[in-house]
Amino acid sequence: MLHNYTAKYTKIDSGYMGQLIEWPEVITEGQNIEECRAMLRDALHEMVLAYQMQKQELPLGNGLIEQLPVEINDVCQAA
């Protein structure tokens, strides 16, 4: 059975950090986005194997990330 997980990538000083939204324990870093993606897939695979060996239920996948725009106005602060 195929499960889909939602990856979040964040630019950091050393490259990129990748983390799964539905399974926050699956987290890794890479020097570039491609390396980070490959390492995140590997980390996910290892976590699936570990959970299966321990007979633990896998977190549900199929999350959705959506960017919500908001206009931010300058706020005058009273002195």
TrEMBL record:
Q: Return the Gene3D superfamilies for the record.
A: 3.30.160.250
In which domain of life is the source organism classified? Bacteria
Q: Return any one Pfam family short name.
A: UPF0150
Under InterPro entries, the record lists: TTHA0281-like, TTHA1013/TTHA0281-like
Please identify the protein, giving its name as recorded.
HicB-like antitoxin of toxin-antitoxin system domain-containing protein
This protein's species is Candidatus Thiomargarita nelsonii
